[in-house]
Amino acid sequence: MLAPTxxxxxxxxxxxxHMHLLHSIGAGAAEIRSRPDLSKCAxxxxxxxxxxxxxxxxxxxxxxxxxxxxxxxxxxxxxxxAGAILVAKKVLGxxxxxxxxxxxxxxxxxxxxxxxxSFEANVEMKNVNRDDPRKIRGVFIRAPxxxxxxxxxxxxxxxxxxxxxxxxxNVIAGTFHPEIAGxxxxxxxxxxxx
Length: 194
Ligand code: GLN
Description:
Helix content is 26%, strand content 34%. The chain is α/β, with parallel strands linked by helices. It has one domain (5-193): Rossmann fold (3-Layer(aba) Sandwich), CATH 3.40.50. A nine-stranded mixed β-sheet has the order 2-1-3-4-12-11-10-7-8. A three-stranded mixed β-sheet has the order 5-6-9. The radius of gyration is 15 Å and the shape is globular. The structure holds glutamine. Glutamine (GLN) binds next to helix 5.
C-alpha cells in the first residue's frame, strides 16, 4: 500500500522545512497550492510564516473553505506558529483576517514581545496513546501565545507555564517550530491521527 500523503500548505512561509522533515521520516509529502492539490492528501500541515499573508492567499485560492470542509470530515491538520493562528477560533485584536475556526483556542500574535523575538527551548511533550512524555526541541519565532483554550482542548506540551502544543480531535496547534530543530515527534503524531 502507498504511504498516505501529508500535504504542506505552500502559499508562503517555511513549507520547505516541513517537506524535508516529512521526507526524513519516510512519509509521503506534497506541496499544496490549490484545491485539487488538497484532494490528494490524507492530512495537512499549515506552516509558519505570516498569518495575514497566508490567510489572504488561502482566500484567493478558495483553499480556506476546502480546508474547513475536509477537516470537518475528519482530515487531521497541524498548524505551526502562523498555522496555529490560522486554525484558531479567535485571534485577539486582529481585524485584518478571520481564522479558520477549527480548534477552540484564542490566540495572541507576536505575544513574546521584541526582546524574545526568537528563541529555542526544550518543551515537554505528553504521551498521546503511546510513548512516555519526552523533551522535544522547539524554535519559537515571533511566536503567538494561546491565551484561552476550551475545556475539550488537550494540552500536549507546555513551556514557561503556558500551553504551546494542543490538540482537539483531529486538529493540532503549536506555537513553536519543531521542523527547524529537526524534531520529529509532532509530525509523527500527525501521521498517527490519519
Ligand atoms: N508572527 C507571525 C504571525 O503572526 C507568526 C510567526 C511564525 O510563523 N514563525 O503571523
